[in-house]
């Protein structure tokens, strides 16, 4: 896998933002899948900056959340839709109608997963997917397990992920136990994939990903080996175990 190591988090964020904006220049109707969490905050801020100074026009782009917690309302302060709205959509003039998230309040979550998958396909699949990575190697919320659904599905979050995400909630007990996530196949249909990682806590998982030569369902990021256009961008702390 193609890896770029930057000195700082800000440089990682700027590079990832430039990657997206280059793709946007080639295709103003860019179809993006975007992550939430700690890692993408700087990248999203830089994308907002580029839009503010007139270097990026997201008014014809489309954006899909990679995942969403069950069962937080769209406007819940902890929802992943609200995260992207707050860090990105509100600042770049992307039409709300062009922003998508699974309806995690739907009566039938499995029907909703099918609908979300079809909506992605109806947009011609993603031109670009930006991923973070979990300490356990999850991408989206595809947690390590012996088998994987290739398409959008409901997932039980594992204890490590719940503990890692507790920092965004006032109490660990408030962290939702389930989410809807893109499937590994949904991600792999993306024309380009960028994975960003930052900080010492990601050093071990980034070494594992960098060194990996076999697909291992217990290390979901290894499925990226199946894709021919993956760019890893990480800062020096996340790369500190890579030799
Ligand atoms: C979030 C997502 C997750 C995160 C991962 C890393 O939408 O899909 O895979 O990217 O858990 O999260 P941070 O960046 O908070 O370390």
What's the pLDDT, averaged over the residues?
Answer: 97
Shape: globular
The CATH level-2 architecture is identified as 3-Layer(aba) Sandwich
Q: Count of DSSP helices?
A: 7
CATH class: Alpha Beta
**What oligomeric assembly is this protein in?**
single chain
Beta-strand percentage range: 15-25%
Task: Outline the biggest β-sheet.
Answer: 7 strands, parallel
End-to-end separation in angstroms reads: 14 Å
Lateral strand order in the biggest sheet: 1-10-9-6-2-3-5
Radius of gyration: 17 Å
Can you offer a commentary on this structure?
- It is a single chain.
- The chain is of the alpha/beta class.
- The protein has one domain: Rossmann fold (3-Layer(aba) Sandwich).
- The chain contains 7 helices and 10 strands.
- The strands form 2 sheets. It has a 7-stranded parallel sheet, covered by helices on one side.
- Helix 7 links the parallel strand 9 and strand 10.
- The longest helix has 18 residues, at 9-26.
- The chain is globular.
- The mean pLDDT is 97.
- Residues 35-39, 66-67, 80, 132-134, 138-141 line the site of fructose -6-phosphate.
Structural topology:
Layout: E1 2-6, H1 9-26, E2 31-34, H2 41-52, E3 62-65, E4 67-70, H3 80-92, E5 99-100, H4 109-122, E6 128-131, E7 153-156, H5 159-165, E8 178-181, H6 184-188, E9 192-197, H7 203-211, E10 230-235
Helix pairs in contact: 1-2, 2-3
Bound molecules: fructose -6-phosphate.
Task: Describe what is shown at a glance.
The chain is of the alpha/beta class. Helix content is 32%, strand content 18%.
